[in-house]
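Reading a protein record of the kind used here takes only a little practice. The integers have meaning only within a learned vocabulary of local backbone shapes. With that in mind, consider the following protein and its fold in token form:
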Amino acid sequence: MNHHREDKHVDQILSVCSGIGGLDLGLHDGLRSVGRSPRTVCYVEREAFPCSVLGKAIEERRMDEAPVWLGDLRDLPIDQLPEIDWVTGGYPCQPFSVAGSRRGADDPRHLWPFIRNIVERTRPSGVLFENVSGHVSMGLFEVLQDLEALGFETAWGLFQASEVGAPQRRERVFILGLADS
């Protein structure tokens, strides 16, 4: 009979376009609710203010202690990351937002191709992304096709912040991808 204790697997998360970490907190809660042990191993954010909010949250132990890559995710040294189980992020919405010029792939802030590269190179078992509802009519199906080509089963949906108690009705699209393996 085998009496050794099996160590509980920790789901290592790479957070890109982290913002202030709201999506990370949600993913952590969701994974814990199904008996998983999530841990963010790196946050990637190019704006100073969200980085300062992340730093304070880490300092106050509301978020995992992990490096914050303050810079362009295109320059992230992917080869120096540990094994990644999840990639999450709220990539820039300006290319798809109805409040903007909706330039899609022609917008210099269009980062999906670079995030796709990160997913392809890290081979996580899951991905969770968030964006504006305008993404549904522009760019979403490219994202879904890319994820499916990388071996993920995908699902997406539109949700309002008020559905989880936030005092606003802002609608967002959420994209979940689980590796077929």
About this structure: Strands lie at 10-16, 37-45, 68-70, 86-89, 126-132, 152-160, 171-179. The longest strand covers residues 37-45. The two ends are 30 Å apart (CA to CA). Residues 1-6 have pLDDT under 50 and may be disordered.
